[in-house]
Protein 1
Amino acid sequence: MSNLIRNNAIVADEWTRVSPPTLGEEQVRKQAGKVVLFKLTGEESYSAEQIAQTDIPAQGKILLPLAVWLARRHEANNALEQRLEKGELGIIVATHESLEKLVESVGDINRLPIIAIFVERFADGRIFSLGNLLRTRYGYRNELRAIGDVLRDQLFFLKRCGFDSYLIRADRSAQEALSGLQDFQQPYQAAVDIPQPAWRRIPR
């Protein structure tokens, strides 16, 4: 069964996610006796070798990592650009990656039928900021999807930041997560989904 929630329902996923191959062990640093993964703004998500070896399906709707799109969008007679024009290509942005690079590469950001924000860890709050920026600063109007470590408790707040579809983590139930979108009926603060605060919306 699908784990994708869109428009308050569980739906089939028509987009194929493209992932670069794993080449050897992921590089880590050790701190205070623990293994910690560092992915900071400006750090490359994938190596040049991984990007070059990424297998991109020739047909169907694909979600392509931003790093792969930036490196390969002009190769093979602009095939990826052509698929973008047909509405068959969306972009995955990791939380440490630059929205500016995405916008520069596509010109009009609304050429993209879907943007997916990948959050590696539930506690990474940058996903909320990125969603908000896409809807407000960049005026993105199409599907904005949360993927990765996405759990029920986040859904209401992701919706407030402009997300409208959510790929629930594979080991959790999308059916159980659905109710998270209705956790609060009258949020006090203004946000992307409701631009006015409660004191302006509700007559007293």
Protein 2
Amino acid sequence: MVDQLVELGRHRTESIESRIDRVVDYILQHLEDDLSLATLSRLVNFSKFHFLRVLQAHKGMSAGKMVQLTRLKRASLQLVFNRTCRITDIALDAGFENAKSFSRAFRRVYMQSLSQFRRFPKWELWRQVHNELALKQEEIIDMQVEIIEFPETMIAAIEHHGPETQTYNTAMKFVKWRKENGVKFDQGETYGIHYTDPKNTFPEDYRQDICVSVNKPIKENPQGVITKIIPGGRCAVIRHMGSRDWMVAEVEYLIHEWLPQSGEQLRDFPIYFHYVNVGPHVREPDMITDIYLPIR
């Protein structure tokens, strides 16, 4: 009884935003489970009618649409980056009864058929759809920053130049190179080196390298992957747990709060991310990313 009263008190004092974020986390963690309106509203101690109004006001969409877009996001990435997976299996994994209903919903959202998206995905439209979703606002709570000595690391890198919305096209080329050269997702350490901030850069000037650590220079190849070096040196590191779409809070904290207060100075190398676990099998809630800020 005491536990129930404590839980009720927590619901009364918890902000609306925190409750909605809790729903978002629950959806991501339970995409294969029952995500009915009754289940989600009960999670935050709202009536179904009140939950619908609150969700519409804060996220601009219904619970059903939020669930479907979240499932379709995972399915669309599986479609492109896990080409050996059957469409029927992707459909069932996304909570659809069959491939036909999955295909209809997919075309309605992404304006492409499944086969069209698998071959030539329109990433700009895809990004617009999931920016609209705007699932969660990260809170900065007790972020732990560690200073480490990063070892000089040889990498195989593919350079992306152009709009951030097209980064997945470059990633597809890199995945193809990895497959053709037998570099599996559990081999080497995968990095993203970010030379520019998309918020402060013209789309055509955006630059990013997608990389994996290697132990020898790589041969010339049709994908344009080249050998580079991540220089050794001191770095401030912060770990992000969860979707890589939500790393803005940690990056902003490192650069605009931690750095000025620390007395440290930036080194002449851009911020980079270590994607600790990668591959189409990794769920968004399980993603682990270390963010490195090079310092002197």
